[in-house]
Amino acid sequence: MVISSAWTLRQHFQGFPKASDFQLKKETLPEPKDGEVVVEAVFLSVDPYMRPYSQTKMKEGDVMIGEQVAKVIKSCHPSFPVGCYVTSKCGWRTHYVCRGADLTPVPPNWPKDVSISLALGAIGMPGLTALLGLEEVCEIKKGETLLVNAAAGAVGSIVGQIGKLKGCTVVSCAGTDAKVAYLKELGFDHAFNYKTVPSLEDALKKAAPNGYDCYFENVGVISPGVVMPQMREFGRIAVCGSISMYNDTTPQKGIALHHSLQV
Ligand SMILES: NC(=O)C1=CN([C@@H]2O[C@H](COP(=O)(O)OP(=O)(O)OC[C@H]3O[C@@H](n4cnc5c(N)ncnc54)[C@H](OP(=O)(O)O)[C@@H]3O)[C@@H](O)[C@H]2O)C=CC1
Ligand SMILES: CCCCCC(=O)/C=C/[C@H]1[C@H](O)CC(=O)[C@@H]1CCCCCCC(=O)O
After folding, report:
1. For residue 108, what are the contacts with CB-CB under 8 A and spacing of at least 6?
2. Could you tell me the sign of the dihedral formed by the alpha carbons of 78, 84, 89, 91, in that order?
3. pLDDT at residue 15 above 80?
4. Where is the Enoyl reductase (ER) domain positioned along the sequence (predicted)?
5. pLDDT, tens digit (0-9, with 9 covering 90-100), for 127-174
6. Taking the alpha carbons of 112, 113, 115, 121 in that order, is the dihedral positive or negative?
7. 52 lines ligand 2 (CB under 6 A)
8. Cβ contacts of residue 168 below 8 Å, gap of 6+?
9. 166 three-class SS
């Protein structure tokens, strides 16, 4: 018998999420049927999308959505033997009975010195988002100048690193000096703290006097009025997210790049 603990949404978030919006519940799991497995969570992910998606895709009392890296502890599916690792969208819970068809295997040749948590990060959804945004949306090319914000985050840090691998000049910003130091460690060409620079406009101009070919927008805090005049002719903008707005209780006024983002 396996008892699962699950974090549920006690009530929809109003503004910034609070601990009291969640409730931990226990549940006794049934035995797996043919084609099913029981998984045990190893790593859970907490991602920005959960804030807006909870509003539209969850009802109060539901288990929090999310992906996890998990270990198979009981199996009735030949492709997922006991002991193998998988990624699974089974939310914030310790254990779950899943259909094998809903699981993605973590490759068995995963390097021993690389944490499997990366299957939720650089090698998972955030890394793929970075790759797709740069290659498919921005169609980035060698020699171009790329601007990325939330650059120390799961998506932004991969955006900048792919940009460097592609031979681009990477201008990055983040919200603390410690993060800016990390961006420099990653080898990004320019990094600044957008909260403390005297003028965002000047910081962007100083880093790239000839302007930007690509802008990977994660936050929604640099106003279009500042960034648009600094885009080069035929420049491309990937509006990946607008995290600074997810906790807003009233929509922000003015022109924004993110207005067509929907969940
Ligand atoms: N379109 C898609 O398919 C996907 C879009 N996304 C989007 O990409 C963006 C980044 O995601 P991800 O890298 O996973 O995020 P992380 O949680 O790794 O990083 C988020 C960072 O955003 C910055 N930030 C700025 N304003 C706020 C705010 N008001 N509240 C919280 N954080 C803020 C902070 O960095 P700092 O201190 O530097 O300001 C924070 O650390 C999000 O907008 C997300 O929704 C993510 C995955 C897929
Ligand atoms: C205005 C909201 C913008 C949110 C942008 C964002 O962070 C999107 C992330 C999704 C991306 O499109 C690809 C994904 O896998 C992200 C999460 C989608 C999860 C849906 C979860 C539903 C569930 O588990 O039931």
Report:
1. 84
2. positive
3. yes
4. 18-239
5. 999 999 999 999 999 999 999 999 999 999 999 999 999 999 999 999
6. negative
7. yes
8. 140, 141, 142, 143, 144, 145, 146, 214
9. coil
% of the chain with per-residue pLDDT over 70 = 97
Q: Residue written as tokens 């390097």?
A: 111
Q: Compute the half-sphere exposure of residue 88: CA atoms within 13 Å on the CB side of its CA.
A: 30
pLDDT in tens, 80-115: 999 999 999 999 999 999 999 999 999 989 999 999
The 3-state DSSP class for residue 57 equals: helix
**What end-to-end distance do the CA atoms of the chain give, in Å?**
37
- Answer yes or no: is pLDDT of 263 > 70: no
Among protein residues, the one with the nearest Cα to ligand 2's atom 22 is 65
pTM, two decimal places = 0.96
Mean pLDDT taken over the chain:
95
Q: Which atom of ligand 1 is nearest to the CA of 132?
A: 3
Question: To test ligand 2's pocket by mutation, which of 49, 87, 89, 159 has the most ligand atoms within 8 angstroms of CB?
Answer: 49
Residue 89 CA: nearest ligand 2 atom is 24
